[in-house]
Write a structure and sequence with these properties.
Length: about 350
């Protein structure tokens, strides 16, 4: 068949080219045709809650008006990558029934009153928020097996003071070391000290925890979990319920808030090996002590407040009657100015 031959239908009638007009054209709207806005929904019907557990993209929460109700929530898209940690006050919308497979949304995160931060080590610029809005930090230390480490306590105290928390030194395994000079190292800092060995009464500890949100930190093996089990009946079961918010991660790898029988919360954190303070400066530490904060305004620029010979003109040396307190605080400053594992808690120390 020649190249100019016309195609034809069966029966001999030639095919005609189809003619198109504008009615045959379908225009798909572009992405830019929809007006965009930065106004976020107000969610006026959102319910206030507290975050009690975090598990890889899911948050376990309890409503402020119903602490018994456990709700699993996700982060709303408008929050982007806003960090949300245990202790955060949040607003929830969606399914608040708490039924299996139900999922609410976190649409707002409240301003934090206090923040406990740490870094992996003193060279790591990335801050990790351990817990938000806690009023106290229980620094759990064993008097024996393992031996207590002053450096770790000092660093944890620094993080607490700077973050707005009140530190409490909680000494366990009192039955293995009934007499100890360890606590004397901190007496000039007005540090509250409580004994919580297996044979010590638990009531003094409960009095300090009553009605407050308290974070517990400590090295592995110091008896922190044993103490939590004494304070919170059925703590093992409670941890499984609260922290099982979606992916089944082992509970020892995450922080979880547990309700105390008479009110208040205990935030049980994983055992730590070190407490990095890369985010904290000497001025941050001094500013946490109201009786010393004004004095450093007279220090020369760049003063580390460690005193002679490093800082011969430090204004802290001119405070009458504060010599022992200044010396104690300078131990805290020394702890954040060295990378020695002795201060990070990596090695056993004695006094």
């Amino acid at each position: 068949m020649g190249g100019n031959a016309r195609r034809s239908r069966p029966g001999g009638r030639p095919l005609r080219r189809r003619e198109y007009d504008e009615t045959d054209v379908r225009v798909r709207p572009g992405r830019s045709s929809r007006p965009r806005t930065k106004n976020r929904p107000e969610h006026k019907d959102a319910e206030a809650a507290m975050v009690v557990a975090v598990d890889r993209g899911r948050w376990g929460c309890v409503l402020d008006n119903d602490p018994e109700q456990r709700i699993v929530a996700m982060r709303a898209r408008e929050l982007g990558r806003t960090p949300i940690v245990v202790g955060d006050q949040v607003d929830l919308v969606g399914d608040l029934s708490g039924k299996p497979d139900s999922l609410a949304r976190i649409v707002r995160v409240g301003e934090r009153r206090t923040v406990l931060r740490r870094t992996a080590d003193d060279t790591d610029p990335f801050e990790r928020i351990v817990v938000a809005n806690a009023e106290q930090l229980f620094i759990v230390v064993a008097l024996a097996d393992p031996q207590p480490r002053t450096g770790f306590v000092e660093r944890a105290m620094v993080a607490a003071y700077v973050g707005g928390l009140q530190p409490v030194l909680c000494l366990t395994k009192h039955d293995l070391a009934a007499e100890s000079e360890f606590a004397e190292a901190f007496e000039d800092l007005d540090l509250t000290i409580v004994y919580a060995g297996i044979e010590d009464p638990v009531e003094p500890v409960l009095e300090l925890l009553d009605g407050r949100l308290t974070a517990f930190i400590g090295h592995s093996g110091v008896g922190k979990s044993t103490l939590v089990n004494r304070l919170v009946p059925d703590a093992d079961r409670a941890v499984g319920v609260v922290s099982g918010v979606g992916k089944g991660r082992h509970t020892s790898t995450q922080s979880v808030a547990l309700a105390l029988p008479n009110g208040g919360w205990v935030v049980d954190t994983p055992g730590v090996r070190s407490f990095g303070l890369a985010h904290i400066t000497p001025d941050d530490v001094i500013s946490a002590f109201s009786d010393l904060a004004d004095a450093i305004e007279d220090c020369p620029r760049g003063c580390t407040h460690l005193g002679p010979p490093a800082d011969p003109e430090c204004a802290l040396d001119d405070l009458p009657g504060k010599e022992r307190r200044v010396a104690a605080i300078r131990l805290l400053l020394t702890a954040i100015n060295t990378n020695d594992p002795w201060f990070r808690g990596g090695q056993t120390t004695t006094i």
